Amino acid sequence: MIQTKDLTMEYPNGFTAVNQLSLQVNEGDIYGFLGPNGAGKTTTIRMLDGLLKPTAGEVLIQGKSVIRNEREIRKMIGVLPESHGYYNWMTGAEYLLFFAQLYGVSKSKQKERVEEVLRLVGMTSKANIPIGQYSRGMRQRIGIAKTIIHEPLLIFLDEPTLGLDPQGQRDIQMILHDLNKKHGVTIFITSHLLKEISEICNRVAIVKEGNLIEEDYLESLLNKYGSLKVDTTVPITLEEVFFYLTNQEDKEMNL
Amino acid sequence: MKKVWITFAFLFSFQMMTQTGGVTFAQDTIDIKILSPDVVENYPGLEATVQAEITNLSNIELKNAMAYITMADIGKHMTVNLEDYGADVPILLDTLQPGQSVKVELPIRFVYTSKYKLYVTVSSDDDQQIHSSESIPVHILGNTKINPIFVQIVSIAMPIILLLLLFFVKRRKKQ
Amino acid sequence: MIAALIGKEIKENVFSKKSLWIYFAVTLLFSGLALSFVSVKELSLLAQVEVNMTFMKVVLGISILVTIIIGSNMYAGERERETLESLLLSPLSKAQITFGKLVGLLLFWFIISLLSLPYFFALSMGTDIFVKALVFLYLICFPLVIGFAALSLGFSTILSSTKSSTLLSFILFLVTAIPMFLSTAMKKSGFAHIVDTVSPLSRSMLTLKDYFVNRLGFAVLMVDLLPVIIFLILSIALLLFANNKITLKGGE
Ligand SMILES: Nc1ncnc2c1ncn2[C@@H]1O[C@H](COP(=O)(O)OP(=O)(O)OP(=O)(O)O)[C@@H](O)[C@H]1O
Ligand SMILES: [Mg+2]
């Protein structure tokens, strides 16, 4: 689904935020993209969705260059950016209708589609309230609804559960799980919450300071590092792998 | 002794008179005549050209002379801001040789309704005295077809309509 | 698709509650001025052409001023509300987004100009001035309005905060309006003279006079308007340049 080769982003100030990143996301994956703050996750997503032009390397989605097929790719993907605002004067339904029209959903289907995504994110009863009166969790749901309004094959979610309470996180996870399993949407997700990632993702990549440290199926990853663990009676968690990998160079750390 | 005083006083006053006579003479160094129009009676917006003849009567050359229109509003007893009338730019005459006579055309556009005296004034660098022509009467008649009632209706209705619209929108939002 | 964006801009900027308040304030201003023409003695002695010309100057100044304030908020506002990224990610190109916003902005100006028409109608009664006012407002002034709209939108894309782009547009508007505050004598030399000859606003006022009062022909009006056309071209060039520069900075 997504393929990158030596993807590099050097910002105008000379800072290399992403360094020669080569990723492979397969159709049907829920792909967790992990890394500490400033690792280059948001930068990577912006290159994948075509908002940022990489200084080197290329992104292919369904075998097509993102930069060269901008319009076509954009209709194929949905993105929920990291810090994402809303038009507070619109109601949830109006907001979704706006994006349905913006993405060229055919006129006869617009209403139907809005109702469908509202149901998917469990916001039908709140659809006619202005977004300005929504709670954070409700906004995030509407955000996800907007991301999938045009039935994309692939969605990017940049920390979609940021600032949500455990119940809110859980709800979003369920929505994503449904989307993936029932509607076959490929999901590329970044998060700080390792538990969350390990619960819903099947593939994981770990980046640090713009460099890819690991990329593998979640199970293989756990197996690979599980054997390194000193105390093998307790199964290894993704969290342990993450800290092991991201702190490796700084100090010697044992699992 | 008294006689002497009287003679003195007489001589002195004569002296004074000749001096004032000198001033009068200076006024006559430049003669300004408005050739046309003789009188203006019309509606606002009228554009006119005031034609005047300026003659140097003295035997010295007058440098940097300029001619311009002046108006006094005798309806309101005020001076007039000639910028509003597009008549604030003087005509420069350069040097006027002794005996030389030039014709100037000064444009003006009458905008305000009132009665005026209009005259042409000339001044030059070498002369402390300002010279003016005789004035012509100008009467600008009111012609505005504006109906004050109609303007008042519009001016009151428009904000009210918008205020109603605002209330309407507010109420609809609440429902 | 672009229709959706234009629709959103209209709802947000043309028919929103905020804009209704603006319209209300503008009509109050128009009313005050119109009433003064029929009640204040000094003004009521003005020739009818002058009355309409003065009113036109105010209509033009006010409508452009509020338009550039709205315009400077259009992109910078999306940035501040963090809604820009989703807009840029839509299938619309940057140029289409900018175009949609420009259309919305011009529509806002159009509504304000519509509000002035009843006043012109009342003030021009019994003359041919009303038709002239329409021609002036919608034909002769259109390049000026588009120019200022494009300029404010351009600033709005380059500067990331609504405050700075509003301020910059406002200052530029004031600079072009300088000659109006100056006496004729000052306008004849130095900096003020330069501003007076190149300022699109002064040139429009000159055109207004040549059209309303001097009743000059099309050719003269075109010469009067030349700086306005140049201003329009420059503003659009700035907007196109700014359009290509739209990027999201880190952390946005
Ligand atoms: N416009 C920019 N110019 C220069 N450097 C930038 C710019 N944007 C981001 N960076 C830098 O690039 C690095 C990666 O930023 P990025 O936002 O991609 O990190 P992240 O992994 O998303 O972090 P977080 O978890 O905090 O969201 C950071 O060190 C950041 O300071
Ligand atoms: Mg980030």
Short description:
The complex is a heterotrimer of chains A (255), B (175) and C (252). Chain B has helices at residues 2-27, 148-174; strands at 30-36, 40-42, 47-56, 62-73, 78-79, 91-96, 101-109, 114-123, 131-132, 136-140. Chain B is α+β, with helices and mostly antiparallel strands.
How would the blueprint of this fold be written?
The complex is a heterotrimer of chains A (255), B (175) and C (252).
Chain A: E1 2-10, E2 16-21, E3 24-25, E4 30-34, H1 41-48, E5 56-61, E6 64-65, H2 70-76, E7 77-80, H3 92-102, H4 107-120, H5 136-147, E8 154-158, H6 166-183, E9 186-190, H7 194-200, E10 203-208, E11 211-217, H8 218-226, H9 238-247
Helix pairs in contact in A: 3-4
Chain B: H1 2-27, E1 30-36, E2 40-42, E3 47-56, E4 62-73, E5 78-79, E6 91-96, E7 101-109, E8 114-123, E9 131-132, E10 136-140, H2 148-174
Chain C: H1 2-14, H2 17-39, H3 41-44, H4 48-80, H5 84-89, H6 94-123, H7 129-140, H8 142-158, H9 162-181, H10 190-198, H11 200-212, H12 218-244
Helix pairs in contact in C: 1-6, 2-4, 2-6, 4-6, 4-8, 4-9, 4-11, 6-7, 6-8, 7-11, 8-9, 8-12, 9-10, 11-12
Magnesium ion (MG) is lined by residues 41-42, 82, 158 of chain A.
